[in-house]
Specification:
- This protein is mainly alpha-helical.
- The protein is 53% helix and 4% strand.
- A hairpin with a 5-residue loop joins strand 1 and strand 2.
- Helix 2 crosses helix 6 and helix 7 packs parallel to helix 11.
- The longest helix is centred in the N-terminal third of the chain and has 24 residues.
- The protein is globular and about 65 Å long.
- It starts with 13 loop residues before the first helix and ends in a 15-residue tail after the last helix.
- The C terminus is likely disordered.
Length: 414
C-alpha cells in the first residue's frame, strides 16, 4: 500500500471510516474484477480519492455500493463496497501510476528491483498494466495517454534537472496526470462545470504527492545515492514545506468552487483533502500535532449568494452549518450509513479467523475485528500517527470554524 493520505480511524466516526473503507475495498475489487488478482497490488490510498470525488458529485444511488464477501484484510467479514464508474476510473488510474512507480524503482535499482530478472519481470508487468489501464479508461471516456505521456516526460525532466532548476519543473508531469484524473470525475458525474476547479485540485494534489514522496525518501535516497529532486536541485526542506503549504491552501480554495451533491461522500472528500492532507504534510516534515495557521482556521470568506457559482456546496462561503442528526438525515450523525452491527462467531469459526489474522499480520499491524465478538480492536503494535485521542482533539479544535462541515465526528467524544 502506498499513498500520502493515510487516515487513522481514531479521527473518523464509525460511519465515515466505513465509507472510506468502502471506497478502498471498491478500488481493490475493481482491480481484481477488471484485471486479475495480481492487479490488486496496485491498490493505493490516494487512488480511492478518484472514487470518492465521483460519488461526491453524483446523485445518491442505490446501485453505488454492493455487498462484498469475506476478506482476510477485513477479519474475514463482508462489507459494503463502492462500485460503478468512479471505482473503475480509480482502478485505471492506479494501474497506470503503479506501473510508473514500478519503472521508477527499476530505473533507480531500488532493493530487489536492482536484480536483472526482477527488473525484466517488472517492466513486463508495467507494460501490461499500461495497456489494461488504457482499456478501462477508454471504456469510461478517459484517455490514459495523458498519464503515460506524463510518465515519459518525468524521466526526461529528471535527467535534465540540476542546480538552479525549479523544483516545480520536475513536479509538473505528476501535476498534469492527477489534474486529468480529478477533472474526469466531473465528466462521469455529469457536472462539467466542476472540471476546471477539480483540475486545479488535482494539479496541486499531484505537486504535494511528489514533494512529500521526495521528503519522506530523502534520508534513504541520500544514504543510497538514489535520485531525489530536493538534493539534485538543491531545494531545502524549508522551501519544500512552503510549497506544500501553498498547495494545500490552494486545494482548499479550489474546493470552494466545486458543486457537490450534498452526500456523505462530499464530507469524506473534505476530510481527506483538507484535514488528512494537512496531517500528511505534518507527518512528512516531522511536525507533532495539528499545525493549522491562523488563516486556515478562519471560515472561507465570501457571501452565501455569490461565493459559489455552482451552488450546492456544503463548504461554500456562508453555507449554513449542517445538523447531522436533524430532520432529513436518514443516516443520523455525520450523514453516513451506520456500520453493520458486529456478527458473533462460534468457537471453531472464530479460531479459524484468528489463525487467518495471525498469518496476515492483522493482529499485530492494523486495527481489526475481534474474531469471536466482532468488536473493533486496536493493533497489538499500534503505529497510529494521531497519538490516540490527542490528534482527534487537535482536529476538533481546528474544525470549530471549518465552514460548518462538522467533519470531526470523533469516536473519543471530543
Amino acid at each position: 500500500m502506498f499513498g500520502i493520505i493515510r487516515p487513522c480511524r481514531h479521527r473518523m466516526s464509525e460511519g465515515m471510516a466505513a465509507s472510506w473503507l468502502a471506497h478502498l475495498c471498491g478500488l481493490c475489487l475493481a482491480l481484481r474484477d477488471g484485471h486479475g488478482q495480481f492487479a490488486r497490488v496496485a491498490t493505493n490510498y490516494d487512488g480511492l480519492i478518484v472514487s470518492v470525488l465521483t460519488e461526491a458529485q453524483s446523485a445518491p444511488s442505490a446501485t453505488g455500493h454492493r455487498k462484498a464477501g469475506p476478506c482476510p484484510l477485513r477479519g474475514m467479514r463482508g462489507a459494503s463496497v463502492a462500485t460503478g464508474e468512479g471505482a473503475r476510473l480509480a482502478a485505471a488510474v492506479s494501474l497506470v501510476l503503479a506501473s510508473a512507480k514500478m519503472r521508477d524503482h527499476v530505473q533507480d535499482g531500488d532493493g530487489v528491483f536492482g536484480r536483472r530478472p526482477v527488473a525484466l519481470a517488472a517492466r513486463t508487468v508495467a507494460r501490461r498494466w499500461d495497456v489494461a489501464g488504457a482499456r478501462t479508461g477508454g471504456s469510461l471516456g478517459f484517455d490514459t495517454a495523458v498519464l503515460v505521456d506524463a510518465v515519459g516526460r518525468q524521466g526526461e525532466l529528471e535527467a535534465a534537472a540540476g542546480p538552479g532548476t525549479g523544483v516545480l519543473t520536475v513536479t509538473e508531469p505528476t501535476e498534469t496526470a492527477t489534474a486529468a484524473a480529478f477533472a474526469h470525475t466531473a465528466v462521469l458525474a455529469g457536472r462539467p462545470g466542476n472540471a476546471q476547479p477539480l483540475a486545479e485540485v488535482g494539479r496541486l494534489f499531484g505537486r504535494l504527492a511528489h514533494l512529500l514522496d521526495a521528503v519522506e525518501d530523502l534520508a534513504e535516497d541520500t544514504r543510497t545515492g538514489a535520485w531525489n529532486p530536493l538534493t539534485v536541485i538543491g531545494t531545502d526542506l524549508g522551501e519544500a514545506r512552503r510549497l506544500c503549504d501553498d498547495a494545500r491552501h490552494g486545494i482548499r480554495l479550489a474546493l470552494r468552487e466545486v458543486e457537490f451533491a450534498g452526500s456523505a461522500a462530499a464530507r469524506l472528500t473534505h476530510t481527506l483533502l483538507v484535514h488528512e492532507l494537512q496531517r500528511s504534510v505534518d507527518r512528512a516534515f516531522g511536525a507533532g500535532t495539528c499545525s493549522h495557521s491562523a488563516s486556515d482556521q478562519r471560515p472561507y470568506e465570501g457571501n452565501a449568494s455569490g461565493g459559489n457559482p455552482y451552488g450546492g456546496n456544503p463548504y461554500a462561503p456562508g453555507a449554513p452549518a449542517q445538523n447531522p442528526g436533524g430532520t432529513g438525515n436518514p443516516f443520523g450523525p455525520g450523514g453516513f450509513p451506520p456500520p453493520e452491527p458486529p456478527r458473533r462467531r462460534g468457537l471453531l469459526p472464530g479460531c479459524l479467523v484468528y489463525a487467518g489474522l495471525c498469518c496476515t499480520c492483522r493482529l499485530c499491524c492494523t486495527d481489526h475485528d475481534d474474531p469471536w465478538t466482532g468488536q473493533r480492536r486496536e493493533a497489538w503494535c499500534s503505529a497510529c500517527d494521531c497519538d490516540g485521542c490527542d490528534g482527534c482533539g487537535d482536529c476538533c479544535q481546528c474544525c470549530g470554524d471549518c465552514d460548518g462541515c462538522d467533519c470531526c465526528d470523533c469516536d473519543c467524544g471530543c
